[in-house]
Amino acid sequence: YEAGEAMLQMRVGSWSELGPDAQKLRTAVFVEEQRIPKELEWDAADAKAVHAVVYNRMGLAVATGRLLPGAQAGEAKIGRMAVCRVLRGGQLGRQVLAALVGAARARGDQRVVLHAQRSAEGFYDRLGFVREGEPYEEAGIPHLTMSLALT
């Protein structure tokens, strides 16, 4: 910071590169804070996903998310968006989302979908995502499918 370096660093990569740091943050947010059973949090999709992790100056992961192929050709699915509790509202989620949408665009996807927790619906809405269908529960938490056209 004092030397003119950025306070935060975004890294986009594979689970083998970023997994240990993403896992710590996701455990803190989803398993410990939101009480989602850890067997619902971890799946084989992490190994094939593109991950985005924001690090602070001390090298700690403070925000993360992942990008997977969607259910249809040309579709991407963003998930596991998590921001350190004390840093929420400070644009970190927006940065992770932008990095993942950028990765989807770069690989030629035409649309991004995600399962938004209802408490985060306004966040995604402000960033151009559109609600689809009716609300539902996932891992005991109310969710809503939302999408963004990339064309």
Please summarize what this structure is.
The chain is an alpha+beta fold. The chain has helices at residues 15-33, 38-41, 92-106, 121-126; strands at 8-13, 50-56, 61-69, 75-83, 111-117, 130-138, 141-149.
Distance between the termini: 37 Å
Q: Which H/E pattern describes the elements?
A: EHHEEEHEHEE
Give the biggest sheet: 7 strands, mixed
How do the strands of the widest beta sheet line up side by side?
1-2-3-4-5-7-6
**Share of helix, binned:** 25-40%
Any idea what the radius of gyration is? 15 Å
**How many individual helices?**
4
Q: What is the number of E strands?
A: 7
What does the oligomeric state look like here?
single chain
Average pLDDT works out at 92
Strand content: 35-45%
Query: Strand pairing plus helix content: what structural class?
Result: alpha+beta
Low-pLDDT segments, ≥5 res: none
Q: Which descriptor suits the 3D outline?
A: globular
